Amino acid sequence: MTVHLPRREEFAELLRLALPVAAVQVGMMLLGVVDTIMVGHVSPQDLAGVALGNIYFFACAVFGMGLLFALDPVVSQAVGAGDAEGAARAVQRAILLAVALAGTASVLLAVAEPLLVLARQPGEVIPLAAGYARATIPGLLPFYLFLVFRQTLQAQGRVLPILAAMAVANLANVFFNWVLVYGNLGFPALGAVGSGWASSMSRGVMAGGLLVIGWSLLRGQLLPFRREALRPRPLGRMLRVGVPIGAQMGMEYGAFGLAGVLIGVLGTVSMAGHQIALNLSALTFMVPLGVSQATAVLVGRGVGAADPDRARRAALGGLLVGAGFMLVTMVIFFLIPEKLARIYSSDLPVVALAASLLPIAALFQVFDGLQVVAMGVLRGVGDTRIPMILNLLGFWVAGLPVGVALAFRGSMGAQGLWWGLALGLAVVALLLLVRIRFRLAGELHRLQVEDD
Q1: Does residue 82 surpass a pLDDT of 70?
Q2: Which pLDDT band, with edges at 50, 70 and 90, does 451 fall under?
Q3: How many other CB atoms sit within 10 Å of the CB of residue 186?
Q4: What local confidence, expressed as pLDDT, does residue 347 receive?
């Protein structure tokens, strides 16, 4: 395969889509950052409760998030092929899936407390984390619907409505946290649990706001309802694309989530410090995640338009942008770890633990950027099963076993687990780059979802 850099206009197209999409991802992450900062000034126990509750929420929700990412290749390839009806049917199928996924995940959120007890989490943190998890149930369906609307608009290259809805949701989240966490305007001070309710209400604002602001762009996909959206075979083909994405995201998040649970065994201070470092590294991760989604769209359009060279150039451009940004964040994490940690907490042991983890996070920044953009490239061509297997190998065969050994046998504690996560990210990134080299060298064809 001959590799060519993207043309100037293609780089411009990538950046026009990637920058707003990355801003949306940062906006989504800021919801959690605000929760963490505002609760962090209540007590270390409340901060640890939000950390553990948030881990549990995403453990329940992440599979559905990944499954709905099947819209990336299906809708973007339909847009590239000029197939508006195919795109609309895919969107309506995704809404049906969102309802089913929300119902299933809500049941899991409702039984958080006994499961956290079985996981041997700190006794003073469990009620707070379980209360936080239960409070997020009303926001789960709006969260999934927002993802459907967002992926649909991104595939069309229309991201300004998403930015507007995200800005409104972030302002609402600050207000809801101020009222419910601290007990203002006559409401009781609910601490960590209040932050969970604030998250639910903010997700409702997110989905409702995007539907209202983007209605003129979404109406054609949402109305009229296409009875073909109920056909089982096309729905099954979408699931075959989406289930491996959901499983891959579940395994990746599961690796970080299990690390968080194991760190919780080490105590409240370790959990709180881990949450700060994870929150900061997740915030920087939002930018390459946005680049990944933009790259998936542009690669998918190239495939749909039967222009494989265009798809290959979009893939290389996305990888360069994602890795370049993470190089910058790597330097920042190395230079000022303690100052970053103090934004979240004034508790000295918590700050010290977080500051010791951030240099490790700095080392895996570039690998993290490469692996997430590589996932987007492969998702754009509809390649989802092999990346799922590579993710399993990197995190669960290589990274986690090493991290657990370093943490508990090597007495390195939280730092040992973070070194294991760093190894897992490096292995996944390298394996995915090899897969891209192999996959893009062959023929690229549009996914066949509809019945013939």
Answers
A1: yes
A2: low
A3: 6
A4: 86
pLDDT band (50, 70, 90) for residue 2: low
Residue whose pair of structure tokens reads 């891959």 in the numeric block: 248
SS3 annotation, the chain: CCCCCCCHHHHHHHHHHHHHHHHHHHHHHHHHHHHHHHHHCCCHHHHHHHHHHHHHHHHHHHHHHHHHCCHHHHHHHHHHCCCHHHHHHHHHHHHHHHHHHHHHHHHHHHCHHHHHHHCCCCCCCHHHHHHHHHHCHHHHHHHHHHHHHHHHHHHCCCCHHHHHHHHHHHHHHHHHHHHHCCCCCCCCCCHHHHHHHHHHHHHHHHHHHHHHHCHHHHHHHHCCCCHHHHCHHHHHHHHHHHHHHHHHHHHHHHHHHHHHHHHHHCCHHHHHHHHHHHHHHHHHHHHHHHHHHHHHHHHHHHHHCCCHHHHHHHHHHHHHHHHHHHHHHHHHHHHCHHHHHHCCCCCHHHHHHHHHHHHHHHHHHHHHHHHHHHHHHHHHCCCCHHHHHHHHHHHHHHHHHHHHHHHHHCCCHHHHHHHHHHHHHHHHHHHHHHHHHHHHHCCCCCCCCCCC
| pLDDT of 438 above 60 | yes
Mean pLDDT of the chain: 92
pLDDT score at 367: 95
Lowest mean pLDDT across 2-16, 119-133, 138-152, 310-324: 2-16
Residue 44 has pLDDT above 70, yes or no: yes
Can you tell me the mean pLDDT for 29-52?
A: 85
